[in-house]
Amino acid sequence: MRSGKAIQRGYFYVSLLLFVVLVGISLMAVSEVWSQRAQREREEELLFIGQQYRQAITHYYATSPKGAFRFPHSLEDLLDDDRDPNRRGHHLRRLYPDPITGRSDWGEVTLADGSIVGVYSRSTEQPLKQKGFLSRDRTFEDQSHYADWVFRSPLPAANPTLGTNGYNAAGPSAPGAAPVVPNGPIRGTPGGQPNNGLNRPILGR
């Protein structure tokens, strides 16, 4: 027959085990909360940086020399615009890395001539944010991958194959989606008028 001390030790070990389990569950819950918070912060950073690229690409086209309107052929063109020797300038303070992947290898949306009209993250992770986007980013709602968040210039010249019924919202990296190719599906922001601020340099944060 077990002694009273043995029974007490048994209760103690069971209580200690339950305590350890509860602490572990609590730590996991806290870790999950912090992880989601960090992811949401990266999403907000992606929305900000993506808009900087979108504006810079738009501004690059809008300030082209007379009769030579074009989009940049590399993201580096946004840093040092030497098309007009009498008016050199920059449209972006620096090339920002993708806050989701931590890398600078942005996906690029290009036209048939190779000029860049938009960028997107190469991450195939699923965004936490699914609703509540600004009107300029309304195509980001209910997307399955960050790669579906395409920051494309809204200028009509950046959307030459845009139809009256909208555009293909599938992102460039979405499984099963066709890649962006010359004269291929339109992705990203639908055509429209450029937003305000085209007459001043677009600077990043």
Quick recap of the structure?
The protein has 205 residues and is mainly alpha-helical. Helices cover 29% and strands 6% of the residues.
Describe this structure in words.
The chain is mostly helical. It has one domain. It contains one helix and three strands; from the N terminus they run H-E-E-E. It has one helix at 4-62; strands at residues 107-110, 116-120, 150-152. A three-stranded antiparallel β-sheet has the order 1-2-3. The protein is elongated and about 100 Å long. The protein starts with a helix and ends in a 53-residue tail after the last strand. The relative contact order is 0.15. Residues 163-205 have low confidence and may be disordered.
Main attributes?
205 residues; mainly alpha; three-stranded antiparallel sheet; 1 helix; 3 strands; disordered C terminus
Topology:
Layout: H1 4-62, E1 107-110, E2 116-120, E3 150-152
Antiparallel strand pairs: 1-2, 2-3
Number of domains: 1
Tally of individual helices: 1
| Overall outline | elongated
pLDDT < 50 runs, ≥5 residues? 163-205
Rg calc:
25 Å
The CA-CA distance between the termini, in Å, is 74 Å
Tell me, rounded to a whole number, the average pLDDT: 77
Helix share bin: 25-40%
Q: What spatial order of strands do you see in the largest sheet?
A: 1-2-3
Q: Report the sheet-strand fraction.
A: 5-15%
Compute the number of strand runs: 3
Describe the biggest sheet? 3 strands, antiparallel
Order of helices and strands: HEEE
Secondary structural class: mainly alpha
